[in-house]
Design brief:
This protein is an alpha+beta fold. The strands form 4 sheets. A 4-stranded antiparallel β-sheet has the order 1-4-7-6, with helices on one face. Strands 9, 10, 11 and 12 form a 4-stranded antiparallel β-sheet that branches. The longest helix is centred in the C-terminal third of the chain and has 44 residues. The radius of gyration is 24 Å and the shape is globular.
Length: about 475
């Protein structure tokens, strides 16, 4: 597996390949190169201490027990994966109700003067961000920007068609071949990227190349790329909140809350947090927080809860009266009628491989809420699955099995492919291959992310099918007992 050292090498190659146009970028690259066996905690800690001092100097407050470390991530494909992520942790025990952080609006980048208001012209925000990156140490925001590693982010909306093809048609990218704007346009996958390239960039070259979105991004100045990636991966409504945006996402373990008023934004703890525990926020919650949407926006799949919801379309010769799925008739061109049937697959993956089939809105609305009572959710999940009709469960199983049969590889086969691709990446980054074409390493890294995602997606479907079979088996046994 690829460890932290390998990831840092890849980041260094990526930064080197695009060039460093400012002192801030050079500082980050230098810091990355100094990472050592402890995951670079010392160098990151110094930068974090500088940021905390800057926040306090400008009227903010930061609890001394809030720290920044590199640690094992939540939600990896393999339990033995040693990749590390940066995030906030409790350096000592912190009681519930403690003010962890206060940020006056004047140090929240993207706001007007001392208010929470964001300018109407959103392009100005990102262009101002890029200008501050270019200013380097002369920037008022230097201590904040020194911890901005957005340039190392590889969000799916900026992948090449080759990397997206590795998703095997899984959502959010259904029809890669049919898109005319490359990765950024596939299935609406571009989001903020598409908006920025369309509204904030002068582009006189009207080409029909299918990778225009990716090419346009790569051709942006380095500081503009950093601004856009920071907006995608860190900003809250184009507001950049120092320290707060270093906290990681986990919709099942949110332990702080944010309150905004005229003075600024205050973050407080909602439960007792023990020394060494990570501090989590929610980037996006509720029924709209699907696995594919989180992946499209941020490039990761969280450990739990994972809500899968996507629509499938199939063609059938005739309708069944007992089917409740939406359908429409269309002329097949030969005088006959083909029925296109749309199936909505929905399930929620919870801890210990518990799965809610067709989860109700009341359950989904709890995703991302603070102090989630997971035991209560698990109890409701078991009752809910039992309340589903046999017809619903059989239909869910059929659609799931049929969909899995359309995929070109199994999760187990993907595991082997992932191992080989990781080995290929390490080979590419060896000293003997320093002349590898620019962008090739990044593309392989994207392919690895795509393989990890499709493994997670297939495993999720299989867990849902296993749950369905268990409920049906229990029901069949109960019915047989009643007949006796």
């Amino acid at each position: 597996m690829m460890g932290m050292l390998s990831m840092l090498i890849a980041v260094a190659v990526f930064v080197a390949s695009i060039g460093a146009s400012s002192e801030a970028e050079a500082a980050f690259a230098a810091a990355a190169e100094k990472e050592d066996d402890d995951g670079g905690t010392s160098s990151k800690s110094k930068l974090f201490d500088n940021l905390v001092a800057w926040v306090r100097h400008n009227g903010g407050r930061v609890d001394n027990r809030l720290g920044l470390t590199n640690h094992k991530r939540h939600g990896d494909v393999d339990d033995d994966d040693d990749r590390l992520v940066r995030g906030g942790v409790a350096l000592q025990n912190i009681q519930a109700g403690t003010e962890l952080l206060f940020l006056p609006w004047k140090i929240v980048f993207g706001t007007i003067a001392n208010t929470h208001i964001v300018p109407e012209n959103k392009c100005d925000v990102l262009q101002s961000y890029a200008a501050e990156v270019d200013a380097g140490r002369a920037s008022f925001w230097y201590e904040y920007l020194a911890l901005d590693d957005s340039l190392s982010s590889r969000v799916p909306s900026l992948w090449s068609g080759l990397a997206i093809a590795e998703l095997q048609g899984l959502p959010p990218y259904y029809n890669v071949e049919s898109t005319t704007s490359g990765a950024a346009g596939a299935a609406g996958g571009g989001g903020l990227t598409d908006w920025y390239l369309s509204n904030c960039v002068d582009n006189d070259d009207e080409s029909d190349d299918e990778h225009d979105g990716v090419v346009a991004f790569v051709n942006l100045p380095s500081s503009s790329r950093q601004a856009l990636l920071a907006a995608i991966t860190r900003a809250a409504g184009l507001r950049f909140l120092p320290v707060y945006d270093l906290l990681n996402h986990h919709n099942g373990m949110v332990n702080v809350q944010s309150f905004a008023d005229r003075e600024g934004d205050t973050i407080t703890t909602t439960v007792d947090i023990q020394k060494g525990e990570e501090i989590f926020i929610s980037y996006r919650g509720g029924p709209e927080n699907t696995v594919d949407e989180m992946f499209r926006r941020y490039g990761f799949v969280e450990e739990w809860p994972r809500y899968y919801s996507w629509e499938l379309e199939e063609e059938e010769e005739e309708l069944r009266d007992d089917d409740s799925n939406e359908s429409e008739d269309a002329d097949d061109g030969n005088g006959g009628t083909t029925t296109r049937r749309r199936h909505r697959m929905k399930f929620l993956v919870l801890p210990q491989q518990n799965v809610a089939i067709y989860p109700p809105t009341s359950m989904l609305s709890q995703i991302g809420l603070k102090n989630l009572n997971i035991d209560d959710v698990l109890a409701k999940t078991a009752k809910h699955n039992q309340s589903l009709s046999t017809q619903q469960l059989i239909h869910f199983r059929k659609v799931g099995v049929d969909f899995m049969s359309t995929l070109t590889t199994t999760a187990e086969e993907d595991m082997l492919i992932l191992e080989k691709t990781n080995d290929d990446l390490l080979m590419m980054m060896s000293p003997q291959n320093l002349d590898a074409p620019a962008g090739e390493v990044e593309q392989v890294m994207d392919i690895i992310s795509a393989i990890r995602y499709r493994i997670k997606f297939k495993q999720g479907i299989q867990m849902a099918l296993d749950t369905t079979n268990e409920v049906l088996a229990v029901r069949k046994y109960a019915n047989a007992s009643d007949e006796l």
